[in-house]
Specification:
Largest sheet: 7 strands, parallel
Number of helices: 11
CATH class of the largest domain: Alpha Beta
Helix content: 25-40%
Number of domains: 2
Strand content: 15-25%
CATH architecture of the largest domain: 3-Layer(aba) Sandwich
CATH topology of the largest domain: Rossmann fold
């Protein structure tokens, strides 16, 4: 079984183990694959694994040997799943590999917005505390989360974990999702229509998938329905947010702060409107990148391959169930 990994460097710069995949066949790993080299590198491969390297319908002619495609991530928009379905080739992704990791990152962004730890630490190191005749000072008034309301848009495994963390900080939790069911046992909690969630939440955290319905779900209209001064968190997909509208809301104070791990274009262009807005934290799509989560990706993909080899594929995103 020949397995080719098109872009292994980001997932594994050397601190996690490809062993579970290597145990299933002869594995060739490329750090990254430019568009023009895809066909040559995939030649003879039974299984093609990609993280962010696009594999489109136009590439199919050069992938005659491929019988399974694995996406080393949850989002699979980099692969033309319909084109592979037409050829009877399953495309499998990995899910729930970094639930705690992403949820913790969302809370880290929120706590930094509320407490400005980095700002004050740097202030002390710069000598400001030494210069003043006071036992304490603050450059930005701290915010206490207890009693506030966390609104979660998208209530899958990550959204639910964020709700648990918010509850642990003493927050009320509202959630909006397509199929509200199995409410958590903690209280206060409620499922809510989007407009009610927007109007009632002090913090809104995005955890929904990117679909035609959710593209730009945070826009000028929905921002206008939010509490003045509310915080916005995005550890899901950058295109959920109209960045120009968010930047305008941040500059006007309508939005009190924003913490995001994702942007609409990655890597971002230098003129991204969020680069010059106040109270804005941007991290480079790293919420998922703990060693534990990246090893989980490899382990789960190995299980996908093993199950496909046995004729019982799992995590198939294009409806092809045969080997």
């Amino acid at each position: 079984m020949e397995i080719v990994i098109l872009d292994g460097a980001i997932l594994n710069p050397g601190d996690v183990d490809w062993g579970p995949v290597k145990a299933l066949g002869n594995v060739t790993i490329y750090d990254e694959t430019p568009t023009g080299k895809l066909a040559g590198r995939a030649r003879g491969a039974d299984i093609l694994l990609t993280n962010k390297t696009p594999v489109r319908q136009s590439d199919l002619a050069g992938l005659e040997s491929v019988r399974m495609v694995g996406v080393l991530a949850t989002g699979y928009n980099v692969v033309d799943i319909d084109a592979f379905a037409a050829r009877g080739i399953p495309v499998c992704n990995v899910v729930a590999y970094g639930v705690d990791d992403v949820a913790q990152h969302a809370m880290a962004l929120l706590l930094e917005l509320c407490r400005c730890v980095s700002l004050h630490s740097q202030s002390v190191k710069d000598g400001e505390w030494s210069k003043i005749n006071q036992w304490c000072y603050w450059k930005h008034t701290p915010v206490c989360l207890n009693g506030m309301t966390m609104g979660i848009i998208g209530f899958g495994t990550i959204g639910r974990r964020v709700g648990e963390f918010a509850h642990a900080f003493g927050m009320n939790v509202l959630a909006n999702c397509r199929n509200p069911k199995n409410p958590p046992t903690y209280s206060p909690f409620a499922f809510a229509p989007l407009d009610r969630l927007l109007a009632s939440s002090d913090v809104i955290s995005l955890h929904c998938p990117l679909t035609p319905q959710t593209h730009g779900i945070i826009n000028a209209s929905t921002l206008g329905k939010m509490k003045k001064g509310a915080f916005l968190l995005n550890t899901a997909r950058g295109q959920l947010v109209d960045e120009k509208a968010a930047a305008k809301a941040l500059k006007s104070g309508m939005l009190g702060g924003m913490g995001t791990d994702v942007l609409s274009v990655e890597p971002p262009k230098k003129n991204n409107p969020l680069f010059k807005t106040p109270n804005t934290l941007i991290t480079p799509h790293m919420a998922w990148a703990t060693t534990k989560a990246r090893q989980n990706v490899i382990n789960l993909m190995a299980e996908n391959i093993r199950r496909w080899q046995e004729g019982t594929p799992v995590n198939v995103v294009n409806g092809v169930t045969g080997k």
